[in-house]
Amino acid sequence: MAIFIFILIHWYASLFFQSVFHHRYAAHNLFTMSKFWERMFYIGCFFTQGSSYISAYTYGLMHRLHHAHTDKTEDPHSPHNDPNPFMMMWTTRNNYFNLYIGKTDAAEKYKKNLPDWERFDKIAHNYITRFCWIAIYIIIYALLATAWWQWLFLPATIIMGSLQGMAVNWWAHKFGYENYKLTNTSKNILPFDFIFWGEAYHNNHHKHPQNPNNATRWFEWDMGFQTMVFLQKLRVIKIK
Question: Could you mention a single GO BP entry for this protein (predicted)?
Answer without folding.
Answer: fatty acid biosynthetic process
